[in-house]
Amino acid sequence: MSDEQNPADSKLTTSKRRWAAEGKFLTGRISRPETERLPPGQHLVKNWPVLDLGQQPVISLDTWRLEVRGLVETPLDFSWTAFQTLEQSTKVSDIHCVTTWSRYDNEWKGVSTRDLLDLAMPKPEANYVMLTSHDGHTTNLPLADFAAEDAILATSWEGRPLTRDHGGPMRLVVPHLYFWKSAKWLRRIDLIPADHAGFWEKNGYHMYGDPWREQRYSDD
Ligand SMILES: Nc1nc2c(c(=O)[nH]1)N[C@H]1C(S)=C(S)[C@@H](COP(=O)(O)O)O[C@H]1N2
Ligand SMILES: [Mo]
């Protein structure tokens, strides 16, 4: 897609807004990760589709920054070099996108969100996070979910640096929620007291987004 396009007006964005209004893809089923690996209404893919607002920002490692702000004891500011010195973790997880594709066994390498939070030290009043990316995408989730055991700030996928189309040089991966919560090109993490809607959440998508309970769209 062209770079001049307003992301909010892209064809995919328009379709996804319509799907939210129509409740498209909803099966009404509930499943449990312990017994079923594929959530209701999802189908398995072997490739890895690219989904974004239509603008894939070019971020040079020289100017790359990650900020952690809001309700933390220690606000953080990383350059790329400083980020590489943090403890590195590997996590293997499945992807579930709200547009109904799932992809199994993705190997991510990077900094676990728990390790990052250990450095930032959330204040007791911090209950949610708002994520802001270089393309203007925002998304919200509870701090407890951001801090999930397998959540990671990924810089590598399947042993190779994360490519720009998939959110490189660094994206979040929160595998137990629909993949729109997994911000690509992440630049800022704000810890906040109460929940606020991000981009898709303002456009008809669920505030939480649990694939196992098929929380694709908001109720209102
Ligand atoms: N910054 C940013 N992050 C984003 C998006 C986006 O448009 N911008 N799209 C979300 C959606 S809807 C999905 S399904 C996944 C897609 O990631 P992929 O392109 O690597 O498959 O990224 C999520 N994170
Ligand atoms: Mo998505």
UniProtKB/TrEMBL annotation:
Q: Entry's Pfam families?
A: Oxidored_molyb (PF00174)
Q: Where is the Oxidoreductase molybdopterin-binding domain?
A: 55-200
Kindly provide the name given to this protein in its UniProt entry: Sulfite oxidase-like oxidoreductase
Q: Which organism is it from?
A: Rhizobium sullae
